[in-house]
Amino acid sequence: MPGIDVGDRVGDLTFLRPDGTAVRLSEHPGPLLLIFLRHLR
Amino acid sequence: MRELLDEIRAAGVDVLVVTQSRPEAVAGVSLPLPTVCDPDRAAYRYFGLDRGRWSMFLRWRVLARYLRLIFAGWRPHRGEAEEDMLQLGGDFILSADRHLLYAHRSNDPADRPAAADLLDQIHHLPRPPEGKA
Q1: A10, A33, A37: which to substitute to probe chain B, counting the most B Cβ within 10 Å?
Q2: What is chain B's alpha carbon radius of gyration, rounded to the nearest angstrom?
Q3: Residues B39 and B20: beta-carbon distance below 8 Å
Q4: I need a surface site. Which of A13, A16, B47, B74 has the fewest CB within 10 A?
């Protein structure tokens, strides 16, 4: 599956908080470690 | 785990966990890290995270990982409704100006970067000039 590469600029993705409200990646300024889980538990 | 997180944060890096679960499923779970939901898996696709095959669960290292988890008290379950059991995870480090600095896309459920590798990457992040942090 293609995806962005190291060095590419990452778009301002939108996620949902556990309360259902939207949160954008840009709301987390500074360096960020993103951990994508396979499943919640 | 706690020491690893402390060291990551001490280096000025935030941690954000992404799950494919729906917000309702996450709301009732006690999580040690800020967690956001991507139930349509758009971000998973954006970062190039594949779906595995059922046969990946038969790999020795995957079986060994699940056995270790079971001995530690975890119990297998089917997952939350609408979760894709074959979806693979990954770990990514983004710079402050939102460029991708590091990417690890898992090949199977046991394939995650070693803590030491993540810390090494974090300790070598480009730093902003003095006074601009």
Answers
A1: A33
A2: 16
A3: yes
A4: B74
Contact between A35 and B99 using a beta-carbon 8 Å cutoff: no
CATH code for the part of the protein at B2-52+79-123: 3.40.30.10
Q: What is the mean pLDDT of each run of 10 residues along chain B (133 residues)?
A: 81 92 85 90 94 82 80 70 84 93 89 86 74 51
| Contact state of B91 with A11 under an 8 Å Cβ cutoff | no
- Tell me the ipTM for this assembly: 0.90
**Residue B4 CB partners (closer than 8 Å, separation 6+):** B115, B118, B119
Q: φ and ψ at B102, to 5 degrees?
A: -150, 140
Tell me the pTM: 0.81
- Cβ-count burial B72-88 (b if 16+ within 10 Å, e if not): eeeeeeebbeebeeebb
Instruction: Return the HEC string of B52-94.
Output: CCHHHHHCHHHHHHHHHHHHCCCCCCCCCCCCCCCECCEEEEE
